[in-house]
Design brief:
Shape: globular
Amino acid sequence: MAAYLNPAQDLYLSLRHRDSALRLIVYDAHARHPHPRLAAACDARRRGGLRLLAAVVRDCDGDWGFGESREPGGGTRSWAVLPCLVN
């Protein structure tokens, strides 16, 4: 995620084990672009940067994504959920 931030921006990371899954959430200050073409280009760049995460999550039957933050101050919320495997 750091590639999308400048050094002055804050980053919030949450890592939790809940409901038999590991949940990783990252909030950054990079707000959604109001222009549709810029927003689509930024989303494509972010998806490309998270390709490795997507592959790991897919192999573990998890879920991931990103979107506008619901937190005050806006920005972007990215998440990954990995189910815990019990042997």
